[in-house]
Every structure is written in C-alpha cells, then in structure tokens.
Write a structure and sequence with these properties.
The chain is an alpha+beta fold. The chain contains 4 helices and 6 strands. β3 and β4 (126-131) form a beta hairpin. α3 (60-110) runs antiparallel to α4. It is rod-shaped. Binds specifically to cytosolic chaperonin (c-CPN) and transfers target proteins to it. Binds to nascent polypeptide chain and promotes folding in an environment in which there are many competing pathways for nonnative proteins. Heterohexamer of two PFD-alpha type and four PFD-beta type subunits.
C-alpha cells in the first residue's frame, strides 16, 4: 500500500520578507481511515470556515495543492489495489483446481484404483500416465521454485486454508478499491469547489473595487 506523506504543503515562507504560509498536514485534510488504514478524505463543507481554521488562513492555491497531492496518492493506491485484485482473481481458480485434483486422488485411493492423467512433454506433445494413489502422497508448488511433499489430507488442509484466505483477501481488496475510488471523487469535488470559491471571491473583490 502506498504511504501517504504527512506533509502536504510548506510550513512557512523561506524568508522574513514574504508573508507566512499556512501549514497543512495530512491530518487536516483526512477524516480518519478505514479498517486497512486507507485515509478517508475530508469533505470541505464550508470553505471559508475551513480556510480560516489555519493560522494564517490557507490560500486557495494551497488547498488545491494539498488535495491534488492527496488525489495523486489515492491514484497510486488504486493502481496497486487493481493489480492485487487481478492477482487474487487469477489465483483462486488455480487453488480450486488443485483442491479438486487432490479430492479426486483421495477418492481413487479409497477405491483402490489408480488415476490416469496426461502430462506435457513439449509444447504440443502430451503423454498418458498412470498415477499410483495408494501411497497418498502429492507434491505441491509453493512458489519461488519450491515444491514440498504432502499427504492428501495435509495438502487438502493447506489448499482449503489458502483458498479461504485468498477469497477473504479478494473481498477486502474489492472493498478497499471501491473505498479508494470514492476518496478520489471526494478529492476532485473538493478541488473543484475550492476553485469555484476562489473565482467567486475574486469577482466579488473586483466588483467591490469598481
């Protein structure tokens, strides 16, 4: 998960001749987090009040910059979650296929029978093989070129645990992805509202000076 910086804007001006600048931290523009620590964007209901809550008051440019930075961070999180979701959606059917195969081997063992399968010799060449199921042993790839030997019972327990975790991870990442996209929308709405607020202020100031 992408880390969101706690410092969004400059704390103060670089020299004494410039006016001080409001300090906007991450906590100023979020309203807590979800269960997996993804920030919740604070919606600016009253822009005048929100701007005036800083000392000195935050300028429109500073507010827009803060939410633009947060928006970029959310886009990074969205990309990571999208990739994670795609990985989970691909891995779950593979786990389910392995579970089905182990159960088939267990059934053959109980029946005192062997299993007939085909294996790949080359790109388009397959051969038929007879698998002795009486020993009740199967080898599972664990990733990173690691293969371990398990009994059918151990393999089934391991695979069903992985399946359950993968499905829960998919549920969580789907929820987080929806949540993140809502935060992106809120950031965009805040940026638009601050911009329009600034335009109205400038027009009112120009009308007053005429």
């Amino acid at each position: 998960m992408a880390e969101i910086t706690s410092s969004i804007a400059a704390a103060e001006a670089s020299n004494d001749n410039e006016a001080p600048v409001a300090n906007i931290s991450l906590q100023n523009i979020i309203d807590g987090t979800n269960e997996r620590s993804i920030p919740k964007t604070k919606f600016i209901d009253d822009i005048d009040m929100f701007s005036g809550s800083f000392d000195p008051p935050a300028s429109p440019e500073l507010l827009i910059g803060a939410y633009s930075d947060l928006h970029s961070k959310f886009k990074q999180i969205e990309q990571q979650l999208t990739e994670k979701k795609a990985h989970r959606e691909k891995s779950i059917p593979e786990i389910e296929k392995s579970i089905k195969l182990v159960r088939h081997l267990m059934q053959k063992k109980e029946e005192g029978d062997s299993a007939i399968t085909r294996y790949n010799l080359a790109d388009i060449v397959y051969a038929k093989a007879e698998v002795d199921c009486s020993q009740g042993i199967v080898n599972l790839w664990l990733g990173a070129d690691v293969m371990l030997e398990y009994t059918y019972e151990e393999a089934l327990e391991l695979l069903t645990t992985k399946e359950s975790k993968a499905k829960q991870d998919l549920e969580d990442v789907t929820e987080d992805l929806s949540f993140t996209r809502n935060q992106i929308i809120t950031c965009e709405v805040n940026i638009s509202r601050v911009y329009n607020w600034d335009v109205r202020r400038k027009r009112a100031s120009a009308s007053g000076s005429n």
